[in-house]
TrEMBL record:
Any GO MF annotation of the entry: sodium channel regulator activity
Gene behind the chain: FXYD7
Organism field: Oryzias dancena (Indian ricefish)
Stretch list, region Disordered: 49-72
Protein name: FXYD domain-containing ion transport regulator
Family annotation (InterPro entries): FXYD7 (IPR047284), FXYD_motif (IPR047297), Ion-transport_regulator_FXYD (IPR000272)
Entry's transmembrane regions: 20-41
């Protein structure tokens, strides 16, 4: 029967590659930051495009209807 020492060798000499960890972390942070900015801007741009494209074929604007706020 195997003892715990032979099943799990000593990992006290394990060393992290901090340069790779730092580079990967910064890269992921930049990707997530840029993705967040693009998502935020796409929602703003999408609202502008949708509101300006609500015109019928003869060029007149379709009137917007206002929805009353819900009663509390």
């Amino acid at each position: 029967m195997a003892t715990t020492e032979t099943m799990f060798p000593d990992q006290s000499d394990f060393d992290y590659d901090y340069e790779t960890l730092r580079t990967t972390g910064v890269t992921l942070a930049v990707i997530m930051f840029v993705a967040g900015i693009l998502i935020a801007l796409s929602k703003k741009i999408g609202k502008c495009v949708k509101s300006s494209s609500k015109s019928n074929s003869n060029g007149t604007q379709i009137p917007k209807t206002e929805v009353p706020p819900p009663a509390v």
